[in-house]
Amino acid sequence: MKKITLFTLMLLCTGFLAHAQKKKELLEEIEQLRSKLQNTETALAESQKNEKISSAKLSSAEEQLTSLKETNASLLSNLNNFTEVSKKKSDNVSKTLESLREKERQLKVINDALSSNDSIKLAVFSAFKNAVGADAQIGIKGGVIMINISNTLLFGDNDKNYMVEDKAKGLLERIGTALNNSPDIKITIEGNSNALEFKDKSLLDNWDLSARQAASVVRVLETDYKVDPKRMDAMGKSQYGSDALSIETSTRIVIHPKFDEFYSLIRENMKN
Question: Which N-terminal stretch is annotated as signal sequence (predicted)?
Answer without folding.
Answer: 1-20
